[in-house]
Description:
Elements: E1 9-12, H1 16-26, E2 29-37, H2 39-45, E3 51-58, E4 65-73, E5 94-98, H3 101-109, E6 114-115, E7 120-122, E8 126-132, E9 138-144
Parallel strand pairs: 1-4, 5-9
Antiparallel strand pairs: 2-3, 3-4, 6-8, 7-8, 8-9
Amino acid sequence: MAIQRMDNVLIVVEDLDAVIAFFVELGMEVEGRGPVEGRWVERVIGLDDVRQEVAMLRTPDGHGKVELAMFHSPAAASGTPRDAPANTLGIRRIMFAVDDIDDVIARLRGHGAELVGEVERYEDIFRLCYLRGPEGIIVGLAEQLR
């Protein structure tokens, strides 16, 4: 049996409100937010005494989702350096298709985002860039040119 779809990507954060604001400015919509705790989640994720707040955000087309989790207990563990470079092992970025890359960059800068490199053109197909947002989260932006 094949998979049906990719449902969501989880990002564990320290400042849930700041990261929600960043993704909402990008154009995502908050689908829901609330506490998650109890034995069922502890069994699923393999941790004890889990208390977290979770927010689910979706793209305007409803197909892509990002789940944000802020752990109250146990405390979140730090993995790679917050500003890890693009060649660090693991998930490095989430890519979004946008209508106007310059407008999105300007709006996200208001939330502390900075370009990782530069905005570049790939042939006559895309303009692309990586932005580092709150908590070191990297988003890729792709504006289709034709």
